[in-house]
Specification:
It is a single chain. The protein is an all-alpha fold and 432 residues long. It contains 18 helices and two strands. A hairpin with a 2-residue loop joins strand 1 and strand 2. The two termini are 25 Å apart.
């Protein structure tokens, strides 16, 4: 059946839309639907899911620490509950990436993000920001809709650079570029604009380097490092220029909209429990006087939707040095693995995941990029899978691809938009 042949694409398409939606009235319904879709995928693709877990189990280090933090948490039931949700979300990213090639993942995510952004415009919900009321749509904040637009822009550029894509995918990519620019301009998010165009510049640069040999690409990288290294002596002047650009040109709040105040409180909490922390969600969902005071200070009524706006500090508060090491170790391994792939087998799809991951790491200094039912979390772990997937030359097909329905089938014609001209991926891991 075509439905089972395209099940990873269908589940991924729907999961990214549902996990991006932050509408309290339908939140419980979405959670049930997400769990049902993932359960169906794991049942139908159970052998592949087990193979993915066996190969990429180490990516779950941080979710595992978050879950087991219930053993020392101030609120053990809450830490266990949200830790299990974190593991669930990470598994979604790992299994989906294992079942789809990078090209197919990019195509699926392009459709999903495009449709979601259209729904946000149609929903029309406005939210507050420093610049006034802006569109937030189905998301919960200006930052999130800006991130969706940033990803949409990068996906569109990636799809156009990939080549050999369906006509429908090409048209969606073409339409997505001006649409993403419209959303970025409407949210007044300078950070998202810089990341969208900066990430796309990296995509184009790596695409242009595909004709070079791996040695030539490595020499280019080393040469760039040697050129940039002496400029570190100008770091103080560069910092002053960045401050001027951020605070005078872009009119950013020097406290980063209260973030620096949050960071001071986070540092104080970390100093009290440096090794194991307070347990996952132990601060914002806890009943301590300090937790209640922080929520009153920032006018927060629901601790589930709030954090310290810095992933490193948030992890250190929740899981202490143990969680911090797991986070930084995972980030470092994925960055190095992705660089290795780009040097040996560069292509637009792999470059997209490397760029998206790198931008997530940068975003981690001013936002929280990982957590339960978050598209950032799924992107984080999907990039980890692709960073260490077997190289194309090492992949061998072990099973035949399932036969699709006849070309005249209406369902197949609609689903064809999700596919490239590639066969189904092997069960041993994603292919290039």
């Amino acid at each position: 059946m075509a439905f089972f042949a395209y099940l990873p694409e269908i589940v991924g398409f729907l999961l990214f839309i549902m996990m991006s939606t932050q509408v309290p009235q339908i939140g419980p319904i979405l959670l049930v639907l997400e769990a049902g879709l993932v359960f169906l995928l794991l049942v139908i693709k159970r052998m592949e899911a087990l193979a993915a877990l066996k190969r990429y189990w180490w990516l779950l280090a941080l979710p595992a620490v978050a879950t087991f933090s219930f053993l020392w948490s101030d609120v053990p039931a809450i830490s266990l509950r949200y830790g299990a949700q974190f593991v669930f979300t990470a598994l979604c990213g790992i299994v989906l990436a294992y079942l789809m090639t990078p090209r197919r993942f990019v195509a699926m995510l392009l459709y999903s993000t495009f449709i979601f952004c259209v729904l946000c415009v149609l929903y029309g919900r406005q939210g507050t920001s420093a610049e006034g009321m802006v569109l937030i749509g189905l998301t919960g904040s200006k930052n999130q809709i800006a991130y969706e637009a940033q990803i949409l822009f990068s996906l569109a550029v990636t799809a156009l650079l990939m080549g050999q894509i369906s006509i429908a995918t090409r048209w969606v990519a073409i339409l997505s570029i001006p649409f993403a620019i419209y959303l970025l301009a409407g949210t007044n998010s300078a950070t998202a604009i810089l990341m969208a165009f900066g990430g796309s510049a990296v995509l184009v640069g790596v695409w242009m380097s595909q004709s070079l040999t791996p040695g030539a690409r490595l020499a280019t990288v080393v040469g760039g490092v040697l050129v940039v290294a002496p400029l570190l002596a100008l770091a103080p002047e560069a910092r002053a220029w960045v401050d001027h650009f951020m605070y005078d040109t872009l009119n950013k709040d020097p406290t980063l909209t209260g973030r620096t105040i949050l960071w001071e409180h986070a540092d104080a909490l970390i100093a009290r429990r440096p090794w194991l922390g307070y347990g996952y969600y132990g601060v914002w969902m806890g009943n301590s006087a300090e937790s209640i005071g922080l929520m009153h200070m920032f006018d927060v009524s629901d601790g589930r939707q709030f954090h310290f706006h810095n992933t490193f500090r948030q992890v250190s508060v929740d899981e202490g040095m143990l969680g911090f090491v797991a986070l930084v170790g995972t980030m470092g391994a994925v960055v190095l693995g992705s660089l290795r792939r780009l040097l040996l087998t560069p292509n637009p799809a792999n470059t997209f995941f490397f760029t998206a991951f790198l931008l997530l790491v940068i975003r981690a200094f001013t936002d929280n990029i990982i957590g339960p039912f978050s598209i950032h979390t799924m992107m984080f772990f999907a990039a980890g899978v692709y960073a260490f997937a077997p190289l194309a030359a090492d992949v061998k097909l072990k099973v035949a691809a399932p036969k699709p329905e006849p070309r005249g089938s209406l369902a197949v014609r609609h689903l064809q938009a999700f596919r490239d001209s590639e066969p189904m991926p092997p069960f041993s891991g994603p292919r290039q």
